[in-house]
Amino acid sequence: MFRFESPQYLYLLLVLAALTAIHYYIIYRKKQQVKRFGDPELTRQLFLGVSRWRPEVKFWLAMVALMSFIVALARPQFGTRLDTRERSGIEAVIALDVSNSMLAEDVKPNRLEKAKMMVSNMVDGMRDDKISLIVFAGEAFVQLPITSDYVSAKIFLETISPDMIGVQGTDIAEAINLGVRSFTQQEDVSRAIFVITDGEDNEGGAVEAAKKAAAQGIRVYVLGIGNPGGAPIPIPGSGQYIIDDEGNTVVSKLSEEMCREIATAGQGSYIYVDNSSSAQKKLSEQVDRLAKAKMESQIYSEYDEQFQGFVLIGLLFLLIDVLLIERESKSTWLSNLFRRQRPLTAVSLLFFCLAAMAQTDRDYIRRGNRLMRDSVYDKAQVEYQKAIEKDNTNPISHFNLGNALLYQNKAEDAMKEYETAARLEKDKVRLGQIYHNMGVICQSAKKFDLAVNCYRNSLRNDPTNNETRYNYALSLFQLKKNQNDQDQQDQQKDEQGKDEKEEKEQQQQQQQDKKEEQQEQQPQPEQMSRENAEQMLNAAMQDEKATQEKVQKAQQQRQRKQLQKQW
């Protein structure tokens, strides 16, 4: 695909048309003046050494040079096509345990945060690999589908917490089975599932699931995190610990035996994670040992600057114009080189200087891109900011700056740059990527309504992006789930208010009946007061029993399915 980055400069071609018209008008006026002296053929013989064709050639040489510089100033670019590139890498699924037991602090700062730091370091070391994130407790679901978008992977990783799954427990088998279904269908690719857990498998079946995965060529690695001696599970924000039904403090212990069995069945390895960095090194070694098979990846090639060719053409024609003299003379080209320059030549040199100055923002962008590939995000940010100072209307500078900020976890600043880039960008493919990144930021911040709108705009511009389509569906599901949860809470409040209202009405009715009975039994105060007390006691006991039955029945209707263990 071909485009001009600054097409407004092409209007300068109209200047060439005006110069051409002026040139031929001057030639016409000269011919008219020559006719006044006599016959044109006889008059021409009087102008010895004057060439008839050299001035015309020199004019068009200067015009072509000027035209080349104008085209270079408009910055012609080629690219932006969908290419299939072969690269070496693996497909890795990270299954992260998010049960409450992962909040134990026997590994600092706690088991879950330690696991997230290890995964983050693992992602930083990836180049041509694909990664997927699965979170599990009593249930399992895909947090991030298989992708090579490491920025999204790290953003989604930061949002993981035990609150994501309502059903507690540890179902490792479900996580492995879901991981097997999360890989792509490409053949001859090394696949591995990395399960990070404390090994307290409440559901069972994990060993069998690992064997099935290994039978399909998928290795299962288990990272056991925690202390075999155990540690209490803190309740966030309360300073207390989780207790069981008998009131005893729950102590969560790492089940190394279970972890080893799963890893052996999955033809992988078991890695013990403690407060040292040895587990991170072993994890990197295991990833490196996996066979690096060729993987196909569809990428959009960037627009590549092609102004250099036009500048060279302009310089070539300009040099010929300088060396070629108008008069038929025996003087050498070297003596003519230092003659007075003509106006068109000076104008051409001026446009050449302008074209060279117009490329400075691209130089900053290229330097920033190299720094991004080297993971030096702070310095890349500086280069992109310099590019914006040179040309604030270039959407590529704002988009790349947003990426650099996003890698530094500066989501708010990145969002501002993406919004600016979206207003300036005209290319639909790049605009779709901008809205995709904006959706990732909103989704990580749990602003699912905004994320849905961003992903929808992305698909309108680039409907072929499968990652955007998945994120859109996931955000829409999360948005509806939040709405349903809010509706259930409102309904529970209404039911609770209704029960309280009915109980209050019953109490008022009992008080009213008591007053009526007292008024009717006033003639026999001592005997009737005793009978009245017994009646009231029996009625109160019956009402209390009926109320308790109603409350228990309502609680049973609203109770969700939960495992016996809540850690």
Number of helices: 20
Give a quick account of the main beta sheet: strands, pairing sense, barrel closure: 6 strands, mixed
The total tally of domains equals 3
Q: How far is the first residue's CA from the last residue's CA?
A: 56 Å
- Number of strand elements: 15
SSE class: alpha/beta
CATH hierarchy: architecture of the largest domain: 3-Layer(aba) Sandwich
Q: Per the principal axes of the C-alpha atoms, what is the gross shape? A: elongated
Mean pLDDT: 78
Question: What does this molecule look like?
Answer:
The longest helix is centred in the C-terminal third of the chain and has 55 residues, at 466-520. The chain folds into three domains: 2-38 and 49-80 and 309-355, no CATH class; 84-299, von Willebrand factor, type A domain (Rossmann fold), CATH 3.40.50.410; 359-480, Serine Threonine Protein Phosphatase 5, Tetratricopeptide repeat (Alpha Horseshoe), CATH 1.25.40. The protein has helices at residues 13-37, 40-44, 54-73, 111-124, 150-158, 172-180, 206-215, 256-265, 278-289, 307-323, 333-337, 343-357, 360-373, 377-390, 395-407, 411-424, 428-444, 448-461, 466-520, 525-558, and strands at residues 2-4, 76-78, 82-89, 91-97, 130-136, 140-147, 191-197, 218-225, 231-232, 234-235, 240-241, 251-252, 270-273, 293-300, 304-305. Helices cover 57% and strands 13% of the residues. The protein has 567 residues and is α/β, with parallel strands linked by helices. The model is unreliable at 297-301, 332-341, 522-528 and 554-564 (pLDDT under 50).
